[in-house]
Design goal:
Largest interface: A-B, 16 and 12 residues
Oligomer: heterodimer
Shape of chain B: rod-shaped
Strand content of chain B: 15-25%
Shape of chain A: globular
CATH class of the domain at 195-299 in chain B: Alpha Beta
Strand content of chain A: 25-35%
Number of strands of chain A: 18
CATH topology of the domain at 117-192 in chain A: Dna Ligase, domain 1
Number of helices of chain B: 8
Radius of gyration of chain A: 24 Å
CATH architecture of the domain at 117-192 in chain A: 2-Layer Sandwich
CATH class of the domain at 117-192 in chain A: Alpha Beta
Helix content of chain A: 25-40%
Number of strands of chain B: 14
Largest sheet of chain A: 5 strands, mixed
Strand order of the largest sheet of chain B: 8-7-6-9-10-11-12-13-14
Largest sheet of chain B: 9 strands, mixed
Radius of gyration of chain B: 46 Å
């Protein structure tokens, strides 16, 4: 179990090194687009501008380069064709570097697929009336009984969500308090090991160092939810191209994450099949005329197909917007119902506040909030990412909430298991044994 | 499924069948751009590479012996051309303040042959050569406008004639030898000194001679004794022995005595002033005889 976190710890160290150099790249590997932002950390936590309230987490860095490219080789949020993805990453990174006019060596990446699974684990530690020290935190975290993830799974996030000391629960920071028994609730998110390895390989092929990996469900929640939603409990639904990721936050911690492997691309392919147009034309029709709530006026609004098969009759077809909506709506409903099912499995209805925030590129469909509130519950709003310093206007839309969240994640990472010291009694056993073996082998 | 085997590139075949251009940079162009964004590499390109290229070109050019020689010859030629321009040539020499014989001497020993470029003139050497001439007290050398080497000198004026075993020398007031003199008669107005080391005490000799002015033409000269003190020699073989210290005062005492008692008019051979508190005189032999005679007469023998 210790070995599992060595790579995460190495990535954390690499991120610290990148912070010291002051430049780090953010890479959002999505199904429909790959976005790259170059951040500069100048250490200036103050942003003295009139009319700007206290900063949540977006101060201290500045976006100096931004680029997006059409994603290739990614399906359902997972890397599908390595060489294609590598080229797409290269395109985005090169354009962002060119805009920033600086070379970046460290990259923090996020992706949505790879079957994320949430585990809530708990651990207990007898303190015998001592002060809780940082060592004890590490020890109670490693005392958690880890469920069997199955073969080929890797822990992507492991956040201590809640500490409890004797009968008092809900402690954010138990250090320095006295008690008999310390217990912790931890949220773990595991993904397919292969997906991370593929991503690391692609990044390495681009001469970059991977300084961190995050789940895009987690980071888009960080950027799209406002502070009281994070605190009271809310779900962020990031409707991407190939996957819709769900994350549930409470007390500023993610307590659940999941992915529905359906997204905007499925809507596009439905349109493409239903109207018999190529997928880029279907994409165009979807973004320009798409919707999910039909009105009477939509029957008379005709949309030209403008396909280019050469058959005049075929190319000059028109379709009413109501028909288009009729194609799109079942698929969007299906996605939202699947989301509903996942939220029900997670027990979302037991949360004190049941705010749902829709973000991601798919959330830009007109009328989606009305449809979503009928399926998901009354408290639905459309979320846009937090505004960060220096972000170009073109990258402030909901499609960039994962990228912006990754910026926040890079600037102000939450504590994870591997940030705490390994307890002393477990630490040296293996290395001592190795030293003994070395001595035996050599003398 | 996308093609896994890359199709051969058909650049000049646009149309619907041509593959859509991949916007991705190639691996090498990506690497090149990253390299160009590296500050150290950019500094190297801006400063280091031109320096290296220039150095390599220069070294490559100079690698051959004949090119090096040619370059050296060219540099020397250029230098000569500049040096030998008429503006820099010194055509004539003017000597100021020298008598004819000294002028001739200077022209004879001058270490440069005119005309010469003013870059080739070694003025300190000329000055040193001039100062080595005994007849020259002071010299100034400079190149005047119009390419004229001007030498201004102050000659030594002879103040004493010094008789040595080798012959006669003329001394100036510092005791430096001006030139040899052929005869004493050629310099009748210069006082005569003799004795070894007289030139080193020339100033004292001149002071003594000035003090001996009232004796007028009776003064024959000064003799240096043992390189230590002076004897003033008068005519009729008279001699005044002066002390080593304060000889002028001693001479003045003698002159006072002379003024009061006509001391030197008498038949004296020697006035010994070497002991200041006991001036002594020696009479001449005839005077002694005469004195004894008169004394005996007085006694009535």
């Amino acid at each position: 179990m210790i070995e599992l976190y060595e790579s995460q710890r190495a990535m954390r160290n690499m991120r610290k090194a990148a912070m010291q150099r002051g430049v780090v790249a953010i890479l959002d590997v999505g199904t429909s687009k790959i976005g790259c932002l170059v951040l500069r950390f100048d250490g200036a936590d103050k942003l003295e501008v009139e009319g700007v309230g206290p900063m949540a987490g977006q101060a201290g860095f500045r976006v100096i380069g931004a680029a997006t490219t059409r994603s290739r080789g990614v399906r359902f949020g997972e890397i599908h064709a390595m060489a294609e993805t590598e080229r797409a990453i290269r395109t985005a990174v090169q354009a962002a570097q060119k805009m920033a006019n600086i070379r970046v060596d460290h990259v923090i990446a996020c992706f949505s697929g790879a079957e994320p699974r949430s585990y809530g684990v708990a651990g207990q530690l007898d303190l015998q009336g001592n002060l809780v020290s940082e060592q004890d935190i590490g020890r109670v975290l490693s005392a958690c009984d880890i469920p069997d993830f199955g073969q080929g799974r890797e822990v992507l996030h492991a956040h201590p969500v809640n500490f409890a000391l004797d009968h008092r629960t809900g402690l954010g920071d138990p250090r320095g308090q006295v008690g008999q028994q310390l217990s912790v609730d931890m949220h773990m998110l595991t993904v397919d090991e292969i997906a991370i390895q593929n991503l690391a390989y692609c990044v390495k092929r681009c001469d970059l160092e991977l300084a961190g990996v995050a789940s895009s469900a987690y980071v888009s929640g960080l950027s799209a939810l406002v502070e009281d939603e994070l605190e009271l409990g809310a779900a962020c639904i990031d409707m991407g191209g190939g996957a819709t990721s769900i994350s549930v936050f409470m007390k500023k911690h993610m307590i659940f994450a999941d992915t529905v492997t359906m997204g905007g691309d499925h809507v596009t392919s439905d349109i493409s099949m239903g109207l018999q147009v190529p997928s880029n034309a279907a994409e165009r029709i979807k973004t320009l005329f798409g919707g999910v709530v039909a009105t009477g006026r939509d029957d008379s609004e005709m949309i030209e197909m403008r396909s280019e098969t050469g058959d005049w009759e075929h190319d000059r077809r028109t379709v009413s917007r109501a028909e288009l909506i009729g194609i799109m709506r079942p698929r969007v409903e299906e996605i939202l119902e699947e989301v509903r099912a996942r939220l029900d499995v997670a027990g979302f209805e037991h949360l004190p506040s049941q705010q749902i925030v829709l973000t991601g590129g798919g959330s830009q469909i007109p009328g989606l909030d009305g449809l979503a509130s009928r399926i998901l519950g009354q408290q639905v709003r459309l979320g846009r990412p937090l505004r960060v310093h220096g972000l170009p206007q073109a990258a402030t839309g909901p499609a960039f909430s994962a990228a912006v969240g990754l910026c926040l994640f890079a600037a102000h990472p939450q504590d994870e298991w591997w940030d705490f010291e390994i307890p002393v009694d477990r630490y040296p056993a293996r290395s001592l044994r190795r030293a003994m073996k070395w001595f035996k082998d050599n003398w | 499924m996308q093609p896994i085997i890359r199709a051969p590139r058909r650049s000049a075949q646009p149309g619907p069948s041509a593959r859509r251009a991949d916007p991705a940079p190639s691996r090498w162009s990506y690497r090149r751009q990253r390299l160009m964004l590296t500050p150290a590499f950019r500094l190297f390109l801006r400063a280091g590479l031109p320096l290296l290229v220039v150095a390599a070109l220069g070294l490559g050019y100079l690698a051959k012996e004949e090119r090096r020689d040619g370059l050296r010859l060219f540099a020397l030629d250029l230098r000569d051309q500049v040096i030998n321009r008429p503006e820099f040539m010194v055509q004539a020499m003017v000597i100021e303040g020298a008598s004819e014989s000294v002028d001739a001497d200077i022209r004879e020993i001058m270490p440069v042959d005119l005309p010469v470029s003013s870059f080739g003139l070694d003025l300190p050497l000329i000055l040193q050569t001039l100062r080595e001439l005994p007849a020259i007290k002071e010299a100034r050398v400079f190149v005047r406008n119009g390419g004229i080497l001007q030498i201004s000198i102050v000659e030594r004026t002879p103040a004493l004639v010094w008789r040595t075993r080798e012959g006669l020398e003329l001394l100036d007031d510092t005791g430096a030898i001006v030139r040899p003199a052929e005869t004493r008669a050629a310099y009748p107005d210069l006082p005569l000194v003799a004795g070894e080391g007289a030139d080193q005490a020339a100033a004292e000799a001149l002071a003594l001679l000035r003090a001996a002015g009232p004796l007028g033409s009776r003064v024959r000269g000064l003799v240096r004794i043992s390189q230590r003190r002076w004897d003033l020699v008068l005519d009729r073989g008279q001699r005044i022995q002066l002390p080593q210290k304060q000889p002028v005062q001693a001479l003045e005492r003698v002159l006072l005595m002379h003024k009061a008692q006509d001391l030197l008019e008498r038949d004296l051979a020697l006035v010994d002033m070497r002991l200041a508190d006991r001036p002594t005189i020696r009479m001449s032999e005839a005077a002694v005889d005469e004195w004894w005679r008169v004394r005996n007469v007085a006694l009535g023998d």
